[in-house]
Amino acid sequence: CRVRHYKFNVVMTNTTRLCSTKPIVTVNGRFPGPTLYAREDDTVLVKVVNHVKYNVSIHWHGIRQLRTGWADGPAYITQCPIQPGQSYVYNFTITGQRGTLLWHAHILWLRATLHGALVILPKFGVPYPFPKPNHEAVVVLGEWWKSDTEVVINQALKSGMAPNVSDAHTINGHPGPVANCSSTGGFKLNVESGKTYMLRIINAALNEELFFKIAGHTMTVVEVDATYVKPFKTNTILIAPGQTTNVILSADQSAGKYLVAASTFMDSPIAVDNVTATATLHYTNSGTNLATSQTTLTSTPPLNATPVANNFINSLKSLNSKKYPAKVPLTIDHSLFFTVGLGVSPCPTCKATNGSRVVASVNNVTFVMPTTALLQAHYFNIKGVFTTDFPGNPPFSFNYTGTPPTNLQTTNGTKLYRLPYNATVQVVLQDTGIIAPENHPVHLHGFNFFAVGRGLGNFNPKTDPKNFNLVDPVERNTIGVPSGGWVAIRFRADNPGVWFMHCHLEVHTTWGLKMAFLVDNGKGPNESLLPPPSDLPKC
Ligand code: C2O
After folding, report:
1. In the structure, what pLDDT confidence band is assigned to residue 293 with cuts at 50, 70 and 90?
2. 224: which strand partners?
3. Ligand 1, closest atom to CA 502?
4. How far is the CA of 456 from the CAs of 301, 307, 310, 330, 449, in angstroms?
5. Would you say residue 292 has pLDDT above 50?
6. Residue 329 to residue 420: CA distance in whole angstroms
7. 73 in ligand 1 pocket by Cβ < 6 Å?
8. Is the beta carbon of 74 within 6 A of some atom in ligand 1?
9. Is 445 near ligand 1, meaning CB less than 6 Å away?
10. 263-272, 434-443, 529-538: which has the highest mean pLDDT?
11. Rounded to whole angstroms, what are the CA distances from 16 to 13, 22, 23, 48, 177?
């Protein structure tokens, strides 16, 4: 293992997409940002220097950060933001993880343009548990707004309405040939007949779960969220914001050009579609002047193709081999039930919506961002920043299947749920559908969890646990709570610190669909948080 040094200069960069040019926030002038490479067991030091007028923080999404919560990145949760002109060195060691993850800004909506791939190679000399592909490529899916994303979100907060959806999806930063003014510059994946390619697919979009497809080809899924899965073939990938999926693609079709596409999945009566992003898979041995008629188009699933989504999700199982066993907690110390969903709350200044606005909550608590980072408040015992009375069960009972409950009320608060070090935890996440049912990709910081159960309608505590998969459930860090349904996750609280859990649709996070766990120190010498680094930003 070695130490890897990276420097991230956060700067404004003029970028042209969809017929117009605007300055966007980037790392080192690139959109998407640079790919960060490391190996399992390496120590990574990333010096982030803030040259822009916004506060910045960077999150290493899916990195366990064992005892190094100071480097996790969510602003006001584990650190105060890096202020304009300041810098901070994120210092962490990658323990027991290998695969594809992503890094992204974790403050307001800066993630829209501040994101990139994080590739962790296996330890030197350790092979993949599948035939080694001939080549690898990173495929980052995102979104593009014609207006400034900060303007989009501020308008939404002021008006009380949902913000505008993005103007296009992107593949490696480009909407692709189908979008306006985009015939050039789209992403091109060059392949050679007979070779195999590992695509490291990342969904870095703000607000959209996506289907990903390559015309004429099937893909073999081998890994999600940097954990190996039992390989399976599919022609469509479902990937939520924050999730990553590695697939093996064989260039086994007749030489030519094939369209690659990323389109929205949203199973909700309030769904709006965005412009599908496209890219080109190009067999280099097919010659240089292929006529466009030789391009094979792909048809993406419709917006609300829930059967396609379910089919993909149900195929995901942990590899659970001797070398990579699924360590599912079999007994549970803390059994929690969290409702996640949207609601309404009074907003006297919101004229467009007659004095109300959309809010979101977990167990009817709309999370209020503190002004001091929670991890500092915890470590230095600063009083009055948070409380530890986050409810383990919903305070009101209601029907989760779509009938609006009589009590829509949410409470504002910075409430944490306290877990003793090493406790085993089960959380059932139930979509409530207060305004309308909707998918919620929920991300837990600091841990991987096992997705042991999933269903539609109301979770039944008597019968549903009987069907849990405790043998080879998929292990990940971000899980889609189905629209009008539930998922059950299990993890071991073996990482001391303050760990954020939230919907990875940024619009829902903004509305308050977030909470945090406080995990106490353990008793052993390696079970407590390391001291904070000296350059930790101050609020
Ligand atoms: Cu990828 Cu808290 O986020």
Report:
1. very low
2. 227, 245
3. 2
4. 21, 12, 11, 24, 20
5. no
6. 15
7. no
8. yes
9. yes
10. 529-538
11. 10, 7, 9, 25, 14
For residue 509, the ligand 1 atom closest to its alpha carbon is: 2
Beta carbon of 508 within 6 Å of any ligand 1 atom: no
Predicted pLDDT of residue 125: 95
Three-state secondary-structure class, residue 115 = strand
Residue 104 CA: which ligand 1 atom is closest?
A: 1
19 alpha carbon – ligand 1 mean position (Å): 31
Condensed to tens digits (0 to 9), the pLDDT of residues 128-176 reads 999 999 999 999 999 999 988 888 888 777 777 788 889 999 999 999 9
**443 CA → ligand 1 middle, Å:** 6
Reading the block at residue 291, the tokens are 């006529």
- Cα 118 to Cα 38, 62, 511: the distances in Å are 8, 10, 28
Residue 59 CB less than 6 A away from ligand 1: yes
104 lines ligand 1 (CB under 6 A): yes
pLDDT at site 271: 74
443 CB within 6 A, ligand 1: yes
Cα–Cα distance list, 294 to 182, 187, 355 (Å): 20, 18, 55
Tell me which amino acid residue 460 is. Answer: N
- pLDDT for the residue 357: 82
User: Among residues 1, 33, 35, 445, which one has the least CA distance to residue 200?
Assistant: 35
Q: Give the pLDDT confidence score for residue 150 in this predicted structure.
A: 81
Cα–Cα distance list, 307 to 80, 214, 301, 455 (Å): 42, 19, 10, 13
Assembly ipTM: 0.99
Could you tell me the pLDDT band of residue 290, with boundaries at 50, 70 and 90? low
Are the C-beta atoms of residues 431 and 459 closer than 8 Å to each other? Answer: no
| 219, two tokens | 């893909």
- Cα–Cα distance, 85 to 229 (Å, whole number): 43
Say how far apart CA 188 and CA 180 lie, in whole Å.
Answer: 18
Contact criterion met (CB below 8 Å) for 450 and 490: yes
One-letter identity of residue 29: G
Q: Whose CA is nearest to atom 3 of ligand 1?
A: 61
pLDDT in tens, 433-462: 767 778 899 999 999 999 999 999 899 999
Q: Which atom of ligand 1 is nearest to the CA of 61?
A: 1
